[in-house]
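Methods — Computational structure assignment.
A single polypeptide chain was analysed. Its primary sequence is given first, followed by the predicted tertiary structure written as structure tokens.
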Amino acid sequence: YFTGLNWKNGDLAIRDLKTGAREYVTSGPGDLKEGYAYYSKPSPDGKLIAYTWSLGSEGKSQLRVIDVDGNHDKVLYHNPDGAFIYPRSWSPDGETLVAFLVTDTTAGQIALFSVKDGTHRILKSLNWRWPATTDISPDGQFIAYDAPLSQDSNDRDVFVLAADGRGSEIQLENPAFDSHPLWTPDGR
């Protein structure tokens, strides 16, 4: 299956790729001004979906996790400071989410969230730089992301950060538009 948003009512939907059937996972207010699901990411085992719930006119958002059948919708984090929080990737064991937080000052942060209790840790503040992709390695040890080099350039570089927040960050420099880094299954 893959997940997406039903723009008519704001609910998170699943489309079964074998049968073509579509099911709604959330049951929102039915009015996009009041709230809607936005960015979603299924867990490695396919049993859970992490997603952003926009609080509509409030201009704030929540990071949520829900069972694929629509049960146990849980708020992991309410972002009081800003417009969005994007779930980007799951740890291989499905216990941790890598997310990108946007604060009210448009500053961005890469954070790790516990799926069990919502506790989180900020790994990297990126100021005005927003990564197009943030992806955790298959062994859960590293996070790759891309970011612009300056506000007046379209060039981006790829960075690799230790998932425990320790150690130095590696920048894979190349004078070009390098974006959307993803790990290969073997992590190399």
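Note: The mean pLDDT is 87.
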